[in-house]
Amino acid sequence: MNRYTGLIEHYRKRLPLAPEARAVSLGEGRTPLIRLHNIPRQIGFEGELYVKFEGLNPTGSFKDRGMTVAVTQAVHEGSRAIICASTGNTSAAAAAYAARAGITAFVLIPEGKIALGKLAQAVVHGAVVVQIQGNFDDGMRLVKEVAETAPVAIVNSINPYRLQGQKTAAFEIVEELGRAPDYHCLPVGNAGNISAYWMGYSEMVGLSTAASAPFDGGAGYDKTAVTDRRPVMAGYQAAGAAPFLRGAPVEHPETVATAIRIGNPQSWDLAWAAQKDSNGWFDEFSDEEILATQKLLAREEGVFCEPASATSLCGALADIKTGKIKPGSTVVCTLTGNGLKDPDIVMKDGLKDLIRVPAERGAVEQALLQRLA
Ligand code: AN7
To answer: Which residues have C-beta atoms less than 6 Å from ligand 1?
Structure first.
């Protein structure tokens, strides 16, 4: 038997978990690294452009990588309940992994500002859903306050075990390419993921980062170098929710990409460190540019990601165009979540493209012939 049973069993030596901690897993990880062909050809890019499709994790986002490790550790420590604030994907993952572990998940979500599919996931997995009359940042503040006294483990990315799980995506990329890419592009909201990737890439060259600090010297784990270089990290934000571009928290973040509608990123220092240490940068894009990229990727390459996720490719294509990303280089964009979570967004003007005919052969043939002309 050689069954893949999730990233904890696969990367156990490179994670700071006690040997006796039993993995709470849904088989997350091992997501496809898809090489884009049509878009690079159209823009005349002769390097290699890949998307790491994290939307194919068990609950449809990269959050599963962090959640398997955070819930495993919480259960190992004796927790009977977990709590998080979320723009949707974290709550979906928390709900599913709590169900798997047989514990309770409390999720605080911004009322009316999360994609329906994500809310459905929290509900179907039996989480206690608390809708906040405020945004993610309010929810995050409340979670921290409540957890001071209530017997609940926080599973937002301020929990260092979350980033430990998420770093494994970088491991997979290095293993698949045989080396690190030249550039790695990510959407940035709470800034945990960019910090986790930087930690993962750094550990693949045998180095620690600020994100691994909670475990350095204590619960040590394997950081043997397996490659000799790290990528430049590029973090992209929605223009209405771009604290890294403003250099300060944004009080009223607004974007159609609700997953990254975050004004006060919790991993602020870690993400700045990743940017500086990698000689990378942050940039911002409008909702229109982000949605256009989501559509482009779906139409030209057959990959359907959610709006927030398209921000990574949106930035990469813009930076390829200006030459900031060098011609001939190898670029990986993380697609953080699955487009199926938020069908409303694409159906807003998608419904008008549907063809309506009587149930007759002639009418259907006519519809076909018109399109083939
Ligand atoms: C699809 O679920 O913060 O910069 O509460 O769902 O690590 O926060 C989601 C974030 C990008 C940003 N893409 O990642 C939550 C939440 C998608 C996301 C991000 C999120 P971070």
So the answer is: 61, 63, 86-90, 157, 187-193, 259-260, 306, 308-309, 336-337
CA distance 216 to 218: 5
Q: Is 154 helix (H, G, I), strand (E, B) or coil?
A: strand
- Cα of 46 to ligand 1 centre, how many Å? 30
Flag whether pLDDT at 219 surpasses 80. no
Q: What order of strands is seen across the sheet that includes strand 183-187?
A: 33-35, 48-53, 330-335, 183-187, 232-238, 281-285
Are the CB atoms for 264 and 85 separated by under 8 Å? no
| 360: region left, alpha or beta (phi > 0 left; psi from -120 to 50 alpha) | beta
Strand 232-238 relative to strand 183-187, pairing: parallel
Mapping DSSP to helix (H, G, I), strand (E, B) and coil, where does residue 45 land? coil
Q: How far is CA 264 from CA 61, 144, 191, 250, 334, in A?
A: 21, 14, 10, 6, 22
201 pLDDT higher than 80: yes
pTM of the predicted model over 0.90: yes
Helices (H), 149-286: 160-166, 168-177, 192-204, 243-246, 268-277
- 156, 174, 193, 310 from 82: Cα distances, Å: 10, 32, 20, 30
DSSP state letter for 326: P
